[in-house]
UniProtKB/TrEMBL annotation:
<dbReference type="Pfam" id="PF13610">
    <property type="entry name" value="DDE_Tnp_IS240"/>
</dbReference>
<dbReference type="InterPro" id="IPR032874">
    <property type="entry name" value="DDE_dom"/>
</dbReference>
<keyword id="KW-0233">DNA recombination</keyword>
<dbReference type="InterPro" id="IPR052183">
    <property type="entry name" value="IS_Transposase"/>
</dbReference>
<protein>
    <submittedName>
        <fullName>IS6 family transposase</fullName>
    </submittedName>
</protein>
<keyword id="KW-0815">Transposition</keyword>
<feature type="domain" description="DDE">
    <location>
        <begin position="67"/>
        <end position="194"/>
    </location>
</feature>
<keyword id="KW-0238">DNA-binding</keyword>
<dbReference type="InterPro" id="IPR047930">
    <property type="entry name" value="Transpos_IS6"/>
</dbReference>
Amino acid sequence: MIPPYPTEIISHAVWLYFRFSLSFRDVEELLAQRGIIVTYETVCQWCLKFGQTYANELRHRRLRCGDKWYMDEVFLTIRGQRHYLWRAVDQEGNVLDILVQSRRNKKAAKRFFRKLLKGLQYVPRVIITDKLKSYAAAKREILPGVQHRQHKGLNNRAENSHQPTRLREKKMRRFKSAKQVQRFLSAFGLISGHFQPRRHRLRAQEYRATLQDRFQTWNEVTRVKLVA
């Protein structure tokens, strides 16, 4: 059973874990430095219980994402077996969705497309992928009227979005199961991305104001979900 702690402490612990490349023990130590004594097991329970709930609420509150979708897949080695992490981002770098699968064939691509469309509930203007043939085959059936560009150089935005995942994979000493990866990254992408506006496009004053707005949204999200 998770002991009763104030909302502010729980939300702060969850924010630390998903926003920065920290372990549960790192979060435990950071809280201890501020006089808050919790075990890393408790931090783990908080992240498992509230992380996805917070992420889902952030997803509901964010504005509609862009109409240009960049898609890419990267391999993950889990217990000696190869899996593939499918990811889609828009032209602003917002993570649209992720899906961990054991294949990267046409069936896997179709499943990813369906998951994207179900979650976003709108059709893109154009999708950009690498030259994997599975994308084209799935696109012809699922998104027949959407423009499709296949070029290695055009897909850098999606490829670069995998970098934070690689950092967390290293910090966590590899992922333990496909279910763990799916659960963690589904929350991580939304929470981490929420606090990372495209700073290079903003003046310092605009960036600070944007970040304050996002912290305010986070406070609203965490307070509502925990009180209920």
